[in-house]
Amino acid sequence: MWKDYFYFTRNEQQGIIILIIGIVCVGGGLYFWPKEARQQEKTKQELQHEEAEFAASLQRKKKEYDYKRYRTFEQTPIHLAPFDPNKTDSAGFVRLGLRPWMAHNIMRYRSKGGRFRKPEDFKRVYGLTAQQFQSLLPYMTVEERDVKRDSSLYTALKRDSVKPFKYAAGVTIDLNTTDTTELKKIPGVGGSIARMIVGYRQKLGGFYDVCQLDDIRLNVEKLRGWFYADASKTQRINLNKASVERLKAHPYLNFYQAKVIVEHRSRYGAISNLSQLSLYNEFTPHDIQRISHYVCF
Hints:
Layout: H1 2-5, H2 10-75, H3 90-95, H4 100-111, H5 130-136, H6 151-160, E1 173-174, H7 180-183, H8 191-204, H9 220-223, E2 227-228, E3 237-238, H10 244-248, H11 255-268, H12 285-291, E4 295-296
Parallel strand pairs: 1-2, 3-4
Keywords: Membrane, Transmembrane, Transmembrane helix
InterPro entries: Endo/Exo/Phosphatase_dom_1, RuvA_2-like
Transmembrane segments: 15-33
């Protein structure tokens, strides 16, 4: 009769087994997981505690080291004696009562070419008090390094010095062939102006008129009598082959003008004369006249 109450089909038996296994797994997990979590939490707290102790030990050692350095410096007797701040070593500065780091800064300043030219310069040492400077000033001597010039010799050299050669009035030179050496022989033209002229000539491709010096803000009226420009020596740009970058690099053409030239070629073919460009608003008669000396077809 009891079998009627405890009889289960095969499916019911499998379900009961799965249920029992699930209960065992859940119970075991609840038993073991908190213990492992507690162990991990304890391990984390121990690590934090060890790190804190390590940092504290480092801080203590640093304080002990600083205290020992301070005591060592305080116990070092101050010995005031004549000294040259440009020759005294770091130990000598410490004996004079300066802190070791101040002596180190002075040595580094001298190693980089620094020099105390007069005793008052020593006041600029960082950390040096006015009282310390006044106590050191009577013992400080700065040796003169520079040899004094013989005034008579200097006057003679100045009188006999060679003056730069300048051309006499009436001499004219070609702006398109002369170099900076020749340009500097023109009265009123120095090295900077000579380099300006040559540099602008390279950008232009040569000068066709002396008046172009006005483009670089030079006084044309004063220089006109010394120069002439051979227009046949200018370098020309082929408008049917040059790119936008090449065209806009010329001082007399901007980006929009260069773009018009390239677009005109792509739409209407090769350019045969500058009158074709005069139809565009980007080109004024003055622009056409200037670039006529630097373009070809």
